[in-house]
Structures are given as structure tokens and as C-alpha cells.
Amino acid sequence: MADKKKTGRCYLVGAGPGDLGLVTLRARQLIERAEVIVYDYLCNPEMLAWAPEKAEIIYAGKKAGAHTLKQEEINALLVEKTRAGFEVVRLKGGDPFLFGRGGEEALALADAKLAYEVVPGVTSAIAAPAYAGIPVTQRGITSHVTFFTGHEDPEKTESAIDFAALAKLGGTQVMLMGVERIDTIAQEMRGHGMPNDLPVALIRWGTTGRQAIVRGTLGNIAERVRDENFEPPAVAVFGEVVSLGQRLDWQSARPLAGKRIVVTRTRKQAGALSERLRDLGADVIELPTIRIEPPTDLRAFAELVQDSHGYDWIIFTSPNGVSAFFEMFYKLYDDARDLGAARIAAIGPATAQRVREFHLKVNLQPDEYVAEAVVREFKREGDIENLRILIARAEEARDLLPRELGAMGAIVDVAVAYRTVAETDDRTEARRRLAEGGADMITFTSSSTVENFLALGLPWPAGMQVASIGPITSQTARDCGLTIAVEARQHDVPGLVEAIRRFYGYA
User: Which domain holds residue 460?
Assistant: First the structure.
């Protein structure tokens, strides 16, 4: 419920062309504090993960032949929510004022005497050609560019596009929308004097891992579109600069271009893996299957943390364990020296790095990132009989580590620092996108991600391969009937990404 004393404000925000890296800092800042978000079909839904959990999220998508809400209804919705005192973010693909009908929404807010702000976005009219290696201007070829829309009211008897003026103007011409009318548009252009051999390119889902390009000329582009069953949304580029695309197409050259990969880590942890995969050109679906929650017995955990200064060793098995431990530690103490003389062991470089972020030294870190390797390292350390060891770990972890260290004579306590539970939130509609569009590969970074993904009961897309972070996760997957195509040699995120690269032929 909005605060009646608070003045509402609506932000008409350009959500960019699709690549999350092209969303402006201002746009992300507004999404992170929004109370209501109204978003379009062309917005990358992954950015909704930045919104507060309590934000109301409304889909107002419009695509050819299917409108969730009519434009008048969207205008009324923005006025209603803003007038009610909410901070409203209206996300529009690309830039709100370039064929985005943002002007109409701004007028509705202005007429209602409501506060609003326009946040420009990176338009697909420039970004999509750039990701296809097409500069819309190029010295020696053209010094001007024209933007027009191919999407007109189907009830019109005549087009409002001045094709004679476009032919006379020349240069680069970029058409947003209108793929379904490319035959008619190409005929009109040729009929008004544009050359039959004028280079043309259509870029679908430009800047994303789903980017696809069809190239041709004004004479054959409609036939190419039909032959390849090329569907919207797409940007069309007409002009001599299109010929540079095959030489400068850097996006298609990336190792994972055209591959759709599912990331099942927690929402907070997914970013590190997703970012690396996107940098290699992949289309990433973040579909978190687990969420980190406090342990069932928080009091018992707090008591062990409080007594941590009395241990000889503290073993951390994951970054989550480190975070939970020190969050509790600094509620109880205000000085790191209260940790006492305990030495620290960490499984994996990510865990060790998280310890170092608290300005503490890691005394033992095995080369292999599994509990068995920790046991081997302690055996090399020599006699550990009667040493007090505290293991901070997940509630559902294997008991190998405390069992083996206890068998060596150590006095072992387990501090259950957190538990993993099934993720129920799907605000980015990742499950729908996976079911409708499939994927080339799914990544699992723990046994719980495997088990919880399968528990969702989603249909398994044809041909989807499995990539595992390490042998324990792989064994769980096999026990569940899955076949492992990729297993990381180095059992962390960089190792998993490298293994995926190798699988697709890029060493």
C-alpha cells in the first residue's frame, strides 16, 4: 500500500536493447528502489531480479498481433499507480522516446499533473547494428542515418512513410519493427528508385546471446526472410555500410555465441557465472533453484560462533558459510581479534577469497576443492589428536569431513551456518522461457541445485546438455538419471566456464 502522504513519481525508463551490460546506471538505480514496475515485451526480464522483493511487477507487453494491455490502458495504469503515491518505473525496450510511445505516456502523466522523469536508454537502432558489426555511419560511405518505423496501423490504406524522400536522402536507413512487412517495404523502396543490389541486414534480438542475422539485398531480402523463417523482433539496416558487417561481426565470433545456457545458482550468486558466460556471447537464463536461509537452529549456531576463539581450526566449506559465520560473529563481537588464535582452512578459491575479504589469512587450502582433499591436507599436517576443530557448513552437507577428522582424534563441532531451500520466486519468468525456448546447456554448481531443479518438474528441453562444477555434483546428477557432458577440472566458477568453452571447441 502506498504512503498517502508521499507524492508519487513515474520514471519512463529506457531498458536498453537487451544486453544487460547496456542498461544505464540510472535505470538500474531506479529498478532497485521501485515500488511498481511496468515492463514491455522487448525488455530483458533478467533486470527484474534487481527489483525489491515487495515491488509489484506488471507485464504490459505488446508484440505483433498480441497486446496484453492497450496503450490507453497502460497510460491509465501509470496515472493510477503514480497518483496513489507509488514510485513507478515504466521499463521500455531501447529508448522510451524512439518509436516507444513514451511521449504518449509522458503526456498522460503531464495532463494528470503528476511528477515524472524520462531516463533515456541505448536504442536498438544503433546497438543492434553495432553488435552485428555494422557502423551506421562510416567515413567515405555515409555521413547520415535515418530512422523509421515499419510498424504502422494495419487499417491504414496508405503508408505514412515517405519512400520517395528516403530514396532521395540515401545514406544509412534503419527500420525498427516491420519484419512481417519487409516484402512490401522492399518493393516500395525499389519502386521509388533505390537500387536492387542495395545491401540489407536484419538483426533479430540484437545485442543478446540470441542474436541472429539475415543478410541480402533489397531485391532478395524478403525471400531470405521467408526461407530462414526469420521472425520479429528485428532491426533492419539498409545501406552500403551493411557490407562491412561480415568483416566486423565481432559478436558472432565469440565462443558461446548462439548458445543458451541455464544458470541454477542462488539469485545472489548467479551473477558471477552469468557474467562470465555472457562475456563469451552466451544467452543466459538465470533460473535459481535454491535460496540461502538461516539455519533451523540459529541459537545453536550463534553459541558455536561465540565460542569460536576456543578452537584450533575453523574450516569453511563455501563462501555462504563464511558470510553467515562472520555476519553472526560481528553481531557478537566488534573486533576480529576476538576470533583468537584459530587457524583457518577453506575449500576452494572462492571460499578463501571470501575469508580474505574479512582481512583474515587462510592457513590451509587444498588444491582440490572437495572435503576429501581437506582430510588429506590434515593428515599431512601430522597429529591432530585432541585439536578442537569447528566446521562452518550447510545444514544438508555430507558428514565425511567431521567423521574423518573425528576418526583422526580431533574434537570436531559442526556449526550449521545456513540451509538451502527451494527457490519459489520466478519474477523473471525464467521457467516459462526455458519451457518455450529450450536451452543448449544447464549448469549445476551443487547437489542441491540438481535436486531442486528436477523437483520443479519442468520438461527437459531436447538436446539440453548438463555441465557440472565437480564430481560430487556430477554423482548426484547421475543418481538422478542425468548424463554429464561437462565436468569442470577445477571445481569453481572459472573452471566450469573453461570446461564449457572446451566442450564447444574453444580451448
Answer: 260-289+423-503
